[in-house]
Amino acid sequence: xxxxxxxxxxxxxxxxxxxxxxxxxxxxxxxxxxxxxxxxxxxxxxxxxxxxxxxxxxxxxxxxxxxxxxxxxxxxxxxxxxxxxxxxxxxxxxxxxxxxxxxxxxxxxxxxxxxxxxxxxxxxxxxxxxxxxxxxxxxxxxxxxxxxxxxxxxxxxxxxxx
Length: 162
What we know:
InterPro entries: DUF7808 (IPR056710). Keywords: Signal. The chain is an alpha+beta fold. 18% of the residues lie in helices and 38% in strands. The protein has two helices and nine strands. The strands form two sheets. The protein has a five-stranded antiparallel beta sheet with strand order 3-2-1-9-6, with no helix packed on it. A four-stranded antiparallel beta sheet has the order 4-5-8-7, with no helix packed on it. A hairpin with an 8-residue loop joins strand 2 and strand 3. The longest helix is centred in the first third of the chain and has 18 residues. The protein is elongated, with a radius of gyration of 20 Å. It starts with 5 loop residues before the first helix and ends with a helix. About 3% of the residues have low confidence.
């Protein structure tokens, strides 16, 4: 029969809890690229393409086959909100943007990540709405990757919300 000291038993229990919680967290990345197009009307938001990535350097991103963005007027200001398709994420972070030195896109002023209910959105306003800009975003989930929706289910849910 094995006898453990209280400190050994406590250390073992803490290790088990940490291992279980570490396996129940996962990250996903989103890359969003916005580009104006010839023929766009004056003041029209640049079109954005959203890509789903398993990690920041994923060489095989999955392109979302529809536009996740729409315009809203918030407190008298026109903003373009793009669903980044991270439903149920506990948080989302902007990892980087390009170009790094952008003349009309400033965090918290002309773009920002915003959580609404269970979804995160990237909004752009003023001249940032109409410019060429890209963002890398990391979403953190408090569940294992295997619990997340398949791309097809994610797209089906997102189409109902947009």
